[in-house]
Write a structure and sequence with these properties.
Helices cover 30% and strands 29% of the residues. It has 308 residues and is of the alpha+beta class. The model has no long low-confidence stretch (mean pLDDT 89).
Length: 308
């Protein structure tokens, strides 16, 4: 009901003030919660029920994937010249052309590190494009986007919108810089030019991404977790076998000493496992170890999806 939805929105607003790592996105039909992991979301749901009296129905947790382009350090891939968009909508011609390129971008200082948090894409403009829109060739330190000319804001909007959905799935692109190299349009009307340039910029991104897909250069990035599992030593083989089937990469196994007097020793496994593979893992581990196993998980970053 609308009253329950209002109650839920108020409760989540309070929780996000207390916990900045909790992200809430409301749609007309659902409310999406994003956090630091499955346990984090379970705690939030429990607090909603206990502290705020909100009874919520939940679906299966979803994993946040990203899509990336396989680019070497310093490599740049570009559209084949200006990509033209030319349509007539409602009797009005919408025409524009954009040339752009992708460059690699990363948050890691180690080029060999393959599991890192994904970097959000950034959009830059060449001095030629900036000159086309009567801006200084070099951006100033205090430059703000909302003061851009409407047509340039439209180009920015078109690029960003197209980067939000890749070709391999409905996943945003990451780890790249989109450099707008050149723009052109036969239209001069201030009413039609922004819309035309937005569509042209979006079309140019889609064209380049499609070309890269055809070359087999797109990759899905999935979140990886650093997992520590404690289990009775006699059950450690079963746990290792299970983690392997979950595409886990075993980093270390510390075997416990056999205890006397009926005392069961515990061993520790450290591994890196895709998040999607350990959803609901607490119940599985309990079954494997007769209720004597425990685990903790920490987000390590996103890495290329393998073995699927």
């Amino acid at each position: 009901s609308s009253s329950e939805q209002a109650k839920l929105s108020t409760a989540l607003a309070l929780l996000t003030v207390e916990d900045p790592s909790l992200v809430v996105e409301e749609t007309p039909t659902t409310t999406l919660l994003s956090g630091l992991g499955e346990l984090h979301i379970e705690i939030v749901l429990d607090r909603l029920r206990r502290e705020f009296g909100v009874q919520v129905r939940t679906g299966r947790p979803a994993v946040t994937y990203r899509e990336a382009v396989a680019l070497d350090d310093g490599e740049e891939v570009a559209t084949d010249g200006l990509v033209e968009y030319d349509r007539t909508v409602g009797g009005v011609r919408m025409q524009g052309a954009v040339k752009l390129s992708f460059r690699p971008r990363t948050l890691s200082e180690d080029p060999d590190e393959d599991c890192i948090p994904p970097a959000e894409p950034v959009v830059t403009f060449s001095s030629s494009v900036r000159g086309h829109f009567d801006l200084d060739p070099r951006p100033g330190d205090n430059e703000v986007e909302h003061k851009y000319p409407p047509a340039l804001r439209a180009v920015l909007s078109g690029v960003r919108g197209s980067l939000k959905r890749g070709r391999l799935g409905p996943y945003p692109l990451a780890n790249l810089e989109c450099h707008v190299m050149e723009v052109d349009s036969e239209l001069s009307s201030s009413d039609t030019l922004p819309g035309a340039m937005r569509a042209a910029a979006s079309n140019a991104v889609s064209t380049l991404v499609e070309a890269l897909e055809n070359e087999g250069r797109l990759r899905i990035l999935e979140p990886k977790m650093g997992v520590e599992v404690s289990a009775p030593t006699e059950k450690i083989g079963d746990v290792l076998s299970d983690l392997t089937t979950r595409r886990g990469q075993i980093d270390d196994v510390a075997m416990g000493d056999e205890g006397g007097g009926g005392v069961h020793s515990k061993s520790m496994i450290r591994a890196e496992v895709p998040l999607v593979e350990i959803l609901g893992y607490a119940n599985i581990l309990r079954s494997l170890t007769g209720g004597e196993g425990a685990f903790s998980a920490e987000y390590k970053g996103h890495a290329e999806q393998e073995g699927v």
